[in-house]
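for the writeup, i need someone to sanity check this before i put it in the appendix. the sequnce is what the collaborator sent (i think, or maybe the updated version? ugh). structure was predicted straight from it, no edits. if anything looks off just tell me and ill rerun, i have time this weekend
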Amino acid sequence: MILKKALARLCVPILSLSVVPLGVNGGISANAAVAALWPLDSEFSEVTTYFDPNRNTGNIYAGHNAIDIPADHNANIYAPIDGVCVSAGWMNDYGILIILRHEELDVYTFYAHCSYADVSPGQTVSAGEIIGHVGNTGNSDGDHLHFGICDTLTGGWPDIMYYDPLTYFTYEIEQPEDNCSCTEDYAGTYVTQNIDTYLNVRSGHGSEFSIVGKLSPQSEFTVTKADGNWAHIEYDGISGYCSMKYIRRKDNIESNMTISGELVPDGEIIQGAAFEVGGTITSNLPITRFTGGIYKADGASPVYVYETSPNALKYDLSGEFDSKMLFNKLEPDTYVYKVEAEDSSGKVYRLIGKSFMIAQKASAATGIFGDLNGDGSITVADGVMLQKYILGMGTLSAEQLKYADITGDGTADVFDMIMIRKMLVS
């Protein structure tokens, strides 16, 4: 149990909530107001998924019936107003679900995906009392609170009508004093820089203000004015402020793209042999499209081609792209290996264009003792084939056994393995 006086010391935001006219649910009058608490500690005030009124069509797949608030695992969940616990337990996709009844409002509030509950059915709770803890149970992709309001329970489940917690109540969270001396000298189109995860968008000029959104790496947005330290931004329906340490004006970025450390097929590759491609593409602007692959000799007929949209400033060819290039499956012929990429300016860069040939695999009868794979030379691959044969993990043809008998004692054994090793070392 947490006393209201203790809550102030914990910095739980006290909220002023004005009830929107309800009409159909017989709640308190439209002019009534009730003081309440945000259901989490003040540091967890960001909403990532909003309520969708389409959910009131009766189709459970039509929209989101609550708001999602990310928070630390096991963070406290507080009762926003006085109520009675109706249920607290496992409810399939909701995971561990807590439902409170608020008789004066004639509504229920519900709290899904909890790690565990601190209340039980029939228990009376007061505003500010801990009722449970944030978790990732049920159909959830991360620790967060799914916080909703409804006026009906069907079989113990929340049901329509649903209400948006951000409009059904009016939330007024106290903010620090904010003084603005920004000018339009900085106005323009900007992109993020030097961030790997995200850049917080805040409600004021400073990190002490609450988070109202996030900018992902390489985001493009509008700055209306700034003071050199904090900028007023508008992005995808979000208006707020972000630090200028991690943004730069897009007008100053010139299109440029390079590739380094490239590994390309060159000359001749024996049929069936594997080849790993590599290289890192670096761009000043986000790489919006990458296309690479193996083509027939005309450079137009695709054999193995891979295309993706990285939307990043770097792309590593040795990752997923390399796994799509099946050199060991190619038939003897001449081919072209090509790589090109396009950045957000629309400029296309042709980074690699290299011809190579797949040669017919040689027979084992090369006349070279120790050459088991018939490629005309003694390599580690020959040693691996002999080792597998000696260990009973592989087989050799009669012709291969002939050239595996390097010592001439009539059998392929560990002594021949020693001879191959000496050949490789020399």
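The two ends are 79 Å apart (CA to CA). The chain has a mean pLDDT of 84.
thx in advance!!
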